[in-house]
C-alpha cells in the first residue's frame, strides 16, 4: 500500500498486490481508502479502513514485512552509507493507532543513561535493574517488548540483547548484582578480564536490531517477570565519528500483567558461531553460508514434548540478502520455519508465525544466509563490525529451556589454508584477525591478505564456496544455567563463544569454551521439502 499527502494537503492511498511472478498490480477493487492523514512533529498518522468492513480498521496481515518510505523534495532525509558500511541515519516512523491496554496490563521500562567509548565499534554490557517497588515480589507475565527510541540511539545502535540474570540457588542476588547497577559496563566479547559475572546472565529475553519493532507474544504466553529483578543489556553500537562522550539513554520498554499466562516463553539463537570464520569472496552476488543445530544438540536442549516456535528474527549485516531456517526430522525435510528472500538489514523485524512450529528432540535445524557483497571490492569475513558479516536467527518459543543458543562453524584451518594462512589471533584493540603464521605473513591482518595478496580466480571462488557449504561443522550448544549442584566457579563463561582463535593480549587466551560438541553438516539422502505454490496453473 502506498499512502501520502499531496502538495495541497490531500491524503491518498493506493492498494497493490503481487501475482505469482511478483509483478506489482494495482488492486482494481481499490479497497484501501484513506480517511485521514496528518503530519505532526515529524510523525505521520494515517487512518484507513476497508469499506467492506464498515466498523473495523484495516487489517495488517502477518506477512507484512516492513513499511518503506518515499520522501518528497522538502523532506529532510539524512542517510549515509560509507565504504565501510557505517550507518548514520534518521527515519520517520509510521504510527498505527494501537489498542489500549486492558485494565490488568501495565507498561514499564528497563533503562539507564549509558556513556560509550569513542571506538568505532564496541559491544558494551551495562547492568539494569527493574525497580521492585513498582511491582513488588509478585511473579508477573511479560506480554511484549520494545526499545526506547531516541535520535542518538537510532544513529548508533546496531542491536540490543536483553539477558536475565540469575544467581545460584544458595547465593543472595543482591550481593552479586546490586553493585553492578551503577557500573558503566565493559566489552563482553573482546575481554579476558571480566569484572562482571556474564556467565550468570545468559538467559536470553529479547533482541532488537536495526529497524526492528516490538515483540508481542501470543495470548496464552508470557515471559516470567518479577522474581528476577536484575538484567544485563548488551549493546552493540557503532561510533564511526569516534565521538568522545557519546551518551544516550539505552533501554527496553515492556508490557506486563499480574494475570499469569499459562505458558512461559523462552528465547534462543541459532547460527554461525560468532567467533567462527567464514569468508565471502569479493564481488560475490549470491554466496551461501550454512550453519547447523544437529540432533545431538536438539536432544539435549528440548524437552520430550518439544518447543513451539511463535516468532523468528533474522540477523545479518549489510551484505545479507536472504535467510532460511530449514527443519529436518528423520529422513524428511519439513516445511521451512522461516524464509526471507528479500532481507533488508536496515529492517530487521521479528516475524510472528502464522501457526506455531514444533521442534522436537532429535530434529536438525539448518540456517542458510545468502550474501551479495558486490557493493564492495573487498572480501567480507565474519565478524562484529557492520562491514563484516553474521548469520543468526533469534527463535521465540513456548516452554523455556536452559540454553541461549546453538551454533556451528567450519574449522578455521579449512578456509585459512586456501588463502595461504595457517593461524590467526584476535587483536583486542583493533578487533581484527591478525596472522601469526606462516612467518612471512605474521603481523598482517587477514583482511589485508585476502584483499591485497590473494588472486580470486574462478577456481578459488568455487573451492571456497564448496568448502563452505559441504564441510562438516563443529556444533555446540552450551547450557546457560548452572545445575543446582554445580559450584558457580565451575560454570563456563560463555561470552567467548566457541571460536578457535585466541585473544591477542599480553598473554594469548584461548577463546574456546570447554564443553561438549559434535560434528555434523547438512542432512543427506532425505526427502527434501518442496513448497506448494497456491497459484493457478498457467
Automatic annotation (TrEMBL):
<dbReference type="GO" id="GO:0005507">
    <property type="term" value="F:copper ion binding"/>
</dbReference>
<dbReference type="InterPro" id="IPR014784">
    <property type="entry name" value="Cu2_ascorb_mOase-like_C"/>
</dbReference>
<dbReference type="InterPro" id="IPR024548">
    <property type="entry name" value="Cu2_monoox_C"/>
</dbReference>
<dbReference type="InterPro" id="IPR008977">
    <property type="entry name" value="PHM/PNGase_F_dom_sf"/>
</dbReference>
<protein>
    <submittedName>
        <fullName>DBH-like monooxygenase protein 1</fullName>
    </submittedName>
</protein>
<dbReference type="InterPro" id="IPR000323">
    <property type="entry name" value="Cu2_ascorb_mOase_N"/>
</dbReference>
<keyword id="KW-0560">Oxidoreductase</keyword>
<keyword id="KW-1015">Disulfide bond</keyword>
<dbReference type="Pfam" id="PF01082">
    <property type="entry name" value="Cu2_monooxygen"/>
</dbReference>
<dbReference type="InterPro" id="IPR000945">
    <property type="entry name" value="DBH-like"/>
</dbReference>
<keyword id="KW-0325">Glycoprotein</keyword>
<keyword id="KW-0503">Monooxygenase</keyword>
<feature type="domain" description="Copper type II ascorbate-dependent monooxygenase C-terminal">
    <location>
        <begin position="264"/>
        <end position="415"/>
    </location>
</feature>
<dbReference type="InterPro" id="IPR036939">
    <property type="entry name" value="Cu2_ascorb_mOase_N_sf"/>
</dbReference>
<feature type="domain" description="Copper type II ascorbate-dependent monooxygenase N-terminal">
    <location>
        <begin position="155"/>
        <end position="243"/>
    </location>
</feature>
<dbReference type="GO" id="GO:0004500">
    <property type="term" value="F:dopamine beta-monooxygenase activity"/>
</dbReference>
<dbReference type="Pfam" id="PF03712">
    <property type="entry name" value="Cu2_monoox_C"/>
</dbReference>
